[in-house]
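ok so for the tutorial part 2 we go from a plain amino acid sequence to predicted structure tokens. step 1 is just haveing the sequence, like this:
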Amino acid sequence: MSGGLVLTATALAGMLLGCTVVGGVSQVALARAGADTAADLTALAVAGRLVRGEPHSAACGVGAQVADASGATVVGCSVTGAEASVQVTVSVLGLGLEATVTARSRAGPLRP
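step 2 — the prediction. this is what the tokens look like for a chain of 112 residues:
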């Protein structure tokens, strides 16, 4: 009977570990999607300000506010004409470890 108990305990431990790993991977995948969305919104906000004629620093400042509201941090904002390129990071805690997910996006007027 003790052999069956050990086998059952081992199977349960394996299932628990599997669920933990799947949960951690899911958290990172969700953070990645959130970072992509935040980067897109940030780039659109910066480009929108640029086409209105605002200076680069002010446009990137608005982008930082948009990223912050989305749970992200701007780590790069560059401007070429009316085109904005941004890089944001999102921190995620999974499996007891903190990870940083990075996303990039670009927005601006259509090119001919």
